[in-house]
Amino acid sequence: MEGFNEQVVKRKNGSKQVIIKMLAVFLLFAVPALFVVLGSVITPYLMMVGFFLFLGGIYGVWYTFTSQRVEYEYSIVSDMLYVSKIISLRKRKRMCAVPIKDIELLEIGDEKIRNMSFAKTYMAVESIDDNSRNYFAVYNDPARGKCLLAFCPNEQILQGMKPYLQKNLVLRHFYNRNV
Length: 179
Fold this sequence. Notes:
The chain has about 180 residues and is of the alpha+beta class. Helices cover about 35% and strands about 30% of the residues. The chain contains four helices and eight strands, in the order E-H-H-E-E-E-E-E-E-E-H-H. The chain has helices spanning about 15-40, 45-65, 155-160, 165-175, and strands at about 5-10, 70-75, 80-85, 90-100, 105-110, 120-125, 135-140, 145-150. A four-stranded antiparallel sheet has the order 1-2-3-4, covered by helices on one side. Strands 5-7-8-6 form a four-stranded mixed sheet, with no helix packed on it. The radius of gyration is 23 Å and the shape is elongated. It starts with a strand and ends in a 5-residue tail after the last helix. About 15% of the residues are buried.
């Protein structure tokens, strides 16, 4: 029986994205202004360079602003969980493909995994600070070793994962039993 479930999660912009946007706007005005000042001192041609840098900078600021819109797509096809990163609806990148049967640990919140070390960490969450909705899956990747996937699935994705998860994880998450 082939199953297919899909979910798209939009990342909330944090302080890092706001700082990047502010820096882009600052550079939009600061670099051309520097060339205008140098043009008044050295040669008037630098004023034209400053004007064209300003026009190019408008495109750069637009590109920077739109690149901060990130979505994550979770897809379950049969027994695989695929996580993709979509940047501003113009670029799609496959982050990871996780065999659901290889998930060793699936936890809500990061208390149990906080002191563990991983070869690779994939962050595909709406907000990293929202521990009540974030799931952390620990799995063993043959190429990289022990990996961590942080994601926030809805009920449909969890139900799609249920037939392929290990028995102890199913009992703990769906039937509230500790095994």
